[in-house]
Amino acid sequence: MDQEGMVVAHLTDELIQSGEQLTIYLDNKMIIKASMWILERESNSWKFVIGTPEVTTKGPRKIYSTVQAALEKNHSISGITLSDIAVVSMVSPIISLMKVAISTGKAIQRLRFTRTTINGFFVEDALIYRMQ
After folding, report:
1. Could you tell me if residue 17 is inside a domain?
2. Of the residues 9, 39, 42, 106, which has the fewest C-beta atoms closer than 10 A?
3. Overall domain count for the chain
4. pTM for this structure?
5. Residue 7 has what DSSP assignment?
């Protein structure tokens, strides 16, 4: 439970592994500059955020289509549905905020940010795989 008495959604090992596998798989399909799980405080649910400049050049519909195909073809990715995913440009507020705090380069890592404030914005919980 958090300090307000609300049960906080747990990021399962299955989702952690699947998020990493999805990032690796999509690396062969598009430019992935950022990928992470972030806990949305309002809905108390986890959102997998993919940051790519291709949202701007190809449009979000094309990117979501590529992600959906990846979810259908790669059986090592389980527990994630398209509704769990947000594809965003590299100038989106969440990407801009996280880039202030972390840079992983191209490598995939598992960096956890819990109850952290970045430039005045409170991050309840996040697991970052990549932030370039």
Report:
1. yes
2. 42
3. 1
4. 0.90
5. P
